[in-house]
Structure prediction request, 91 residues.
Amino acid sequence: MAGTVDAARCRACARLTYPTHYYCPACGGREFEPVPIEGEGTLLTWTRVHALPLDYEQRYITLGIVELDMGIRATGRLEMGDPAIGRRERA
Ligand SMILES: [Zn+2]
Prediction:
């Protein structure tokens, strides 16, 4: 997954959320600080999307959900040719 994406850490209870919410799902807090998503995680599942717009350069894209060691699940595009569930990935 390329680029920098931020998760949000609740200032009240330190719960990490991603995608970000307006309210902390754990304590209802409304103040967050951005935390860059980084580190390693385990690939939970993945899929290929073949139904792309006609002007798309690639025949398909690969999407996956990675459970990151920092405690969140991130959905994103996988930049790999042959994903394997359970494999360790870098965010
Ligand atoms: Zn909270």
In short: Residues 10, 12-13, 15, 24, 26-27, 29 surround zinc ion (CB under 6 Å). Residues 8 and 21 are 8 Å apart (CA to CA).
